[in-house]
Design goal:
Blueprint lengths: L2 H25 L1 E2 L3 H15 L16 H15 L16 E11 L4 E12 L5 E3 H18 L28 E2 L10 E8 L4 E4 L18 E7 L6 E7 L2 H12 L3 H11 L1 H18 L1
């Protein structure tokens, strides 16, 4: 394996995983653990990348606190619970959570808020740590190392500041979109905090007795229309049914997989009696008209 192949492998396995993680982080969407999954994918790509390097490259194992953190994220994702060996930061998958963080600010006009999403790790020492700076630092270490070997160009990625660690002006605020799959439970953690302009830090607000309000935007109803045409083509009868939320969700997934027609046929077969009843009513109405 030459340097060009190693570069291509690094871009495909590691930088590709980073781009998926970055895009989800910056999209500020939560509710379905997409960001958590992307963070664990990136951690796994970083942790296992050395295994792909040829022995003749003369590379040395990289060691740092950030790489240890990332390795333990990867192991937690793989094993769920890691009892063997000594872990420094994390040994359980359920201690890794996707968290929507809303920070309250105040200016001369009044109160306003900004929301972001992070992957927060409840560490073995009792601290809550944002996974982002560990992931970005580990990635930068690999980029610097490969750059020194003339495999990749020099580049330093920046981890954005933690939510509430700096003032966000009213004109720059963004909201967080909560995704809800009607077939599964909402999977997200919410944290509310208030920014202190004197110390430039934020303090968590108690959730007990508090209220979170959501506006849920349901997708428009999906209608399945079947058309029956007489043998001579002179008459057409249409039968329309409204899909349930679960059927509509299945159809959207099938669309992405290129299986729309197969899913529509499955739904039609499942609701055959209802469709036949609608067609019968249409034919009776047509007969009365004639």
């Amino acid at each position: 394996m030459d340097k060009a192949q190693i570069k291509a492998l690094f871009h495909q396995r590691v930088l590709g995983a980073y781009e998926r993680y970055r895009d989800l982080r910056d999209a500020r969407r939560t509710g379905m653990n997409r960001l958590k999954a992307a963070a664990l994918e990136l951690a796994t790509a970083l942790h296992h990348f050395p295994e792909l390097l040829p022995t003749n490259l003369g590379w040395r194992p990289l060691q740092s606190a950030e790489l240890t953190f990332v390795a333990e994220l990867s192991n937690a994702a793989k094993h769920g619970v890691r009892e063997r060996g000594k872990q420094t930061y994390v040994n359980r998958l359920d201690s890794i959570n996707e968290v929507a963080i809303e920070t309250l600010y105040e200016d001369e006009i009044g109160r306003y808020s900004d929301a972001e999403v992070r992957v927060i790790v409840s560490c073995l020492d009792g601290e809550q740590r944002d996974a982002d700076p560990f992931l970005i630092s580990s990635l930068n270490q690999w980029i610097a190392y490969l750059s020194n070997l003339n495999v990749t160009p020099a580049l330093e990625l920046i981890s954005p500041p933690f939510p509430g660690s700096a003032i966000v002006l009213r004109e720059n605020i963004r909201s967080c979109v909560v995704e809800v799959n009607l077939q599964t439970d909402l999977s997200s953690t919410f944290q509310l905090q208030r920014f202190d302009p004197v110390t430039s830090t934020s303090h968590a607000l108690p959730r007990e007795g508090g209220d979170f309000q959501f506006r849920v935007y349901a997708p428009p109803p999906v209608e399945l229309v079947l058309t029956l045409t007489s043998g001579d083509g002179s008459q057409k009868v249409e039968a329309a049914i409204i899909l349930t939320a679960a059927e509509a969700a299945d159809l959207r997934v099938a669309d992405k997989l290129g299986l729309r027609e197969a899913m529509m046929a499955k739904i039609a077969d499942h609701r055959r009696e209802e469709i036949q009843a609608v067609i019968s009513q249409k034919l009776q109405a047509l007969t009365r008209t004639e």
